[in-house]
Amino acid sequence: MSRRQLRGGKAHRFGGDWTTEKLEVLAKYLSSYTTALKDKPSRQQPFRKGYIDAFAGTGYRDAHRDDYPADSSQTLLFPDLAGQEPQDLLDGSARLALKTEPRFDRYVFIEQSEKRCADLKFLKSEFPALADDIEIRRGDANLEIQKLCRMTWRSHRAVLFLDPYGMQVEWKTIEAIAGTQAIDLWLLFPLGIGVNRLLTRSGEIPEPWRLRLNLLLGTEDWYEEFYSFESTPTLFGGADERVVKASTQTIGRYFNDRLKKIFPAVAEEPKVLRNSANSPLYLLCFAAGNPNGAPIALRIANHLLKKGLE
Ligand SMILES: C[S@@+](CC[C@H](N)C(=O)[O-])C[C@H]1O[C@@H](n2cnc3c(N)ncnc32)[C@H](O)[C@@H]1O
After folding, report:
1. How far is the CA of 72 from the centre of ligand 1 (A)?
2. Which of 22, 34, 176, 211 could form a disulfide with 102 if both were Cys (CB 3.0 to 4.6 A apart)?
3. 40 in a structural domain
4. Tell me: the pLDDT tens digits for 132-148?
């Protein structure tokens, strides 16, 4: 298929400059990862290395930030934040993984949309040498990852990219990933595009939003972390009560600290991905899965997160 044909219908449109930032970090990590594993003597490396993309898209990106699919509106919640930043047709995460040298042994692309799964299948003809090692799974990322994590990981290592539009990821999925002790995780945490918007100024949070936050954060104690109540005495003996909501920094730090409880190493400073109006949309977080590999994985990730675009 030509690029023109893709542009005519199959390109998956999303993302502005921050999309470039996140994909550059991912692509550089993938090649550092496979290079680091290749350089090891084979007796020290009895495992196969995989790439898992749980919100895989089409393989391409053609960025128009206003072009979120209609079916994401409920979980994205606030598509307006995304802005409008057209860009050329570019590689999405799945293609970047397939182009990574040295190559991975296996590629798993998970995607809920039937149409996008059909587009992903074209990647097999674009990368014929890798075709037998590409698996496309249509389904919900949480269920599919939890299934994958239940397999025996002793002889496998992987990098997993969680790139949702909004609040789709569940904490129990992240726990399952950490439980393998074999998977390095790159995750887009929906800081501004989801969590911060669900945390109302008044502190009154509709029940469906509260449940969504519970699923994403894996606990109900976030309310006490994110809200405090200030009481100021009035001249007449009473008190003025004021609800104080946490800053986006506090919310981001809270989530990163939760990652630290379940992974052997977590990047201290996730990258804040902002739209053209400078509003924080997502945090690009990194967690290393294998205790032995964690120091080097963390060193590479920290370097990429600090470096920004070059
Ligand atoms: C931000 S896009 C991913 C872009 C992709 N990582 C790239 O760089 O090309 C999110 C994708 O997740 C898919 N999606 C949404 N909810 C999903 C779910 N629960 N499970 C799996 N895929 C989902 C959407 O159809 C969309 O293609």
Report:
1. 9
2. 34
3. yes
4. 999 999 999 999 999 99
Comparing CA positions, the residue from 161, 58, 65, 73 lying closest to residue 112 is: 58
Q: Does 3 score more than 70 pLDDT? A: no
Quote the CA–CA distance of 260 and 165 in Å, as a whole number: 23
Q: How far is the CA of 55 from the centre of ligand 1 (A)?
A: 3
Q: Using a 6 Å cutoff on CB, does residue 15 contact ligand 1?
A: no
* CATH code of the domain in which 177 resides: 3.40.50
Tokens of 178: 């950490």
d(CA 32, CA 288): 14
Residue 230 lies in a domain: no
Task: Report, as an integer, the average pLDDT of 69-92.
Answer: 53
Protein residue with least CA distance to atom 16, ligand 1: 112
Ligand 1 atom, smallest distance to 92 CA: 9
Establish if 78 belongs to a structural domain: yes
Quick check: CB of 57 below 6 Å from ligand 1? yes
Tokens at 301, concatenated:
């990730």
How many domains, the chain?
1
Which among 112, 120, 123, 144 is the best mutation to test ligand 1's pocket, defined by most ligand atoms within 8 Å of the CB? 112
Q: Which residues contact 105 (CB under 8 A, 6 or more apart)?
A: 48, 49, 50, 133
Task: Tell which atom from ligand 1 comes closest to the C-alpha of 15.
Answer: 1
Residue 233 lies in a domain: no
Whether 113 lines ligand 1, by a CB cut-off of 6 Å, is yes
Tokens 């089409």 sit on residue: 58
79 close to ligand 1 (CB < 6 Angstrom): no
Q: Are strands 227-233 and 134-138 parallel, antiparallel or unpaired?
A: unpaired
Cα–chain center distance at 34:
20
pLDDT value at residue 230: 85
10 in contact with ligand 1, CB cutoff 6 A: no
Q: Residue 133's domain spans which residues?
A: 3-219+248-307
